[in-house]
């Protein structure tokens, strides 16, 4: 159950952390903290990389806004600690966070539910790539896309244009993870769609189209450069918009997500078929981030969005009595 703004109490903005996305998380958390302070909330920055997370309970924090991205912040581990401490938090619970953080498990859930996602293969670190390259190329075609299953912000990811490039792409992904996820490359328009809320009452925000330089929405083009163009709402037909939003909402519910999330989608140029790529359960909140952009288009300013998410913070594991 959501609480009123005046009843939020002492709030920890969890940011930084130890994942490869620390730099982005610091930007997100700093902006979230500033917005909460401006709204009169008793908010405090808290970096789990520098402090014991269990200090949250010892210091009397009433709730937490999770502005951490990646492992040990978005993957269910932190959510489990907060459940143990009884500190309500923003976003999805333990299971949904863990599922969404693992792109392979996410795909398996979506495919089980009949949702469209690119074909894929998974190679454990140390695999003899040359021995399986022909089979993978035959199954997925060229080009392909290789990424670490547990990373975000395009870290360790790369496009493979020829079979000879697969080895190097896998080695890059293995620097970040124990496995390399190899996906069929869907050529077309890059979209993203955010969801706010829980279960049957969850609400879809306007779709954003991302037009990155040379079609490469990499770490630089996401967070540092100013050449990427964002179109919100995306220029789609009413039928396309409705269908993609419905698919994203179904994908969000299939994983058990709650609070908020953002799905990345590719719209294939050849036939306008939509493919789900991944679900982010702790999306970025920087000045380049996409959820705040979609929320503004929907009529929710940044500061209002932050307070709305915090008011909806909750525990997800039912406590027994006695």
TrEMBL record:
Gene Ontology terms: biological process: cell wall organization; peptidoglycan biosynthetic process; regulation of cell shape
Enzyme Commission number: 6.3.2.4
Subcellular location: Cytoplasm
Pathway named in the protein's UniProt entry: Cell wall biogenesis; peptidoglycan biosynthesis
Cofactor(s) needed for function: Mg(2+); Mn(2+)
Keywords for the protein's UniProt record, in alphabetical order: ATP-binding, Cell shape, Cell wall biogenesis/degradation, Cytoplasm, Ligase, Magnesium, Manganese, Metal-binding, Nucleotide-binding, Peptidoglycan synthesis
A GO CC term attached to the entry: cytosol
Annotated Gene3D superfamilies: 3.40.50.20, ATP-grasp fold, A domain (3.30.1490.20), ATP-grasp fold, B domain (3.30.470.20)
Highest rank taxon of the organism: Bacteria
Binding-site residues for Mg(2+) 1, renumbered to this chain: 264, 278
InterPro entries in the cross-refs: ATP-grasp, ATP_grasp_subdomain_1, D-Ala_lig_Van_CS, D_ala_D_ala, Dala_Dala_lig_C, Dala_Dala_lig_N, PreATP-grasp_dom_sf
Pfam families, per database record: Dala_Dala_lig_C (PF07478), Dala_Dala_lig_N (PF01820)
Binding note for cofactor: Binds 2 magnesium or manganese ions per subunit.
The ATP-grasp domain, residue ranges: 107-311
Keyword Nucleotide-binding: yes
GO molecular function, one term: D-alanine-D-alanine ligase activity
Catalysed reactions, as listed in the record: 2 D-alanine + ATP = D-alanyl-D-alanine + ADP + phosphate + H(+)
Active site: 21, 153, 289
NCBIfam families: D_ala_D_alaTIGR, PRK01372.1
Purpose of the protein: Cell wall formation.
Protein name: D-alanine--D-alanine ligase
């Amino acid at each position: 159950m959501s609480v009123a703004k005046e009843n939020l109490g002492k709030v920890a903005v969890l940011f930084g952390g130890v994942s490869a996305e620390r730099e982005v998380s610091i930007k997100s958390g700093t902006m979230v903290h500033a917005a909460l302070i401006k709204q009169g909330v008793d908010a405090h920055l808290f970096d789990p990389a520098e402090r014991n997370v269990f200090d949250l309970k010892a210091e009397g924090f009433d709730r937490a806004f999770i502005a951490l991205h990646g492992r040990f912040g978005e993957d269910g581990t932190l959510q489990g600690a907060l459940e143990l401490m009884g500190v309500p938090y923003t976003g999805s619970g333990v299971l949904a966070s863990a599922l969404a953080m693992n792109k392979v498990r996410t795909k398996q859930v979506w495919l089980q539910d009949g949702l469209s996602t690119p074909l894929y293969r998974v190679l454990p670190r140390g695999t003899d790539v040359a021995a399986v390259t022909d089979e993978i190329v035959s199954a997925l075609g060229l080009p392909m896309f290789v990424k670490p299953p547990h990373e975000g912000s395009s870290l360790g990811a790369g496009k493979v244009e020829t079979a000879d490039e697969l080895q190097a792409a896998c080695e890059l992904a293995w620097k970040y993870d124990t496995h390399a996820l190899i996906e069929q490359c869907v050529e077309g328009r890059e979209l993203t769609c955010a969801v706010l809320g829980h279960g049957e009452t969850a609400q879809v925000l306007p779709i954003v189209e991302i037009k990155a330089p040379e079609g490469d929405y990499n770490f630089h083009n996401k967070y540092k450069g100013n050449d990427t163009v964002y179109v919100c709402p995306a220029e789609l037909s009413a039928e396309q918009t409705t269908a993609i939003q419905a698919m994203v909402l179904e994908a969000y519910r299939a994983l058990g997500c709650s609070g908020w999330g953002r799905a990345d989608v590719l719209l294939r140029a050849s036939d306008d078929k939509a493919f789900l790529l991944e679900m982010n359960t702790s999306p970025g909140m920087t000045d380049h981030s996409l959820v705040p952009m979609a929320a503004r288009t929907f009529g929710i300013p940044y500061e209002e969005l932050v307070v709305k998410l915090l008011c909806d913070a909750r525990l997800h594991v039912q406590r027994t009595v006695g």
